[in-house]
Amino acid sequence: MGFILYLIVGGIIGWLAGLILGKDIPGGIIGNIIAGIVGAWVGGLLFPDLGPVIADIAIIPALIGAIIVVFIVSFILKSMRKA
User: Fold this and answer.
1) Which of 4, 25, 61, 81 could disulfide-link 31, Cβ–Cβ 3.0 to 4.6 Å?
2) Which pLDDT does position 1 carry in this prediction?
């Protein structure tokens, strides 16, 4: 049950990061989950133990990390489309 909750929280974090930036994350739901989980990892490296924790994911650092991940991925995809 913990793994499923981890995926759900990761998906919500990725979705929120996309909404905040106004960018679509490629891959739909799977892309949101990946962005949320990778964002949680990045945010955990930058801001460990900050804010509330759900399913072993600190929400505030995860959201900040997911915003960074979504921004970088959208920038890379935008530059690839121009080339």
Assistant:
1) 25
2) 76
Length of the chain: 83
According to DSSP, residue 48 is labeled: T
Contacts of 44 (CB under 8 A, 6+ apart): 58, 61, 62, 65
The pair of three-digit structure tokens given for residue 6, joined into one six-digit string? 């981890």
The residue segments making up the domain with residue 38 are 2-82
Beta strands in 17-69 (DSSP E): 53-54, 57-58
Q: Mind listing the pLDDT tens digit for each residue in 34-83?
A: 988 999 899 989 988 788 988 888 899 999 999 999 999 888 888 888 76
Q: If you average pLDDT over residues 1-14, what whole number do you get? A: 88
Structural domain count of the chain: 1
pTM of the model: 0.87
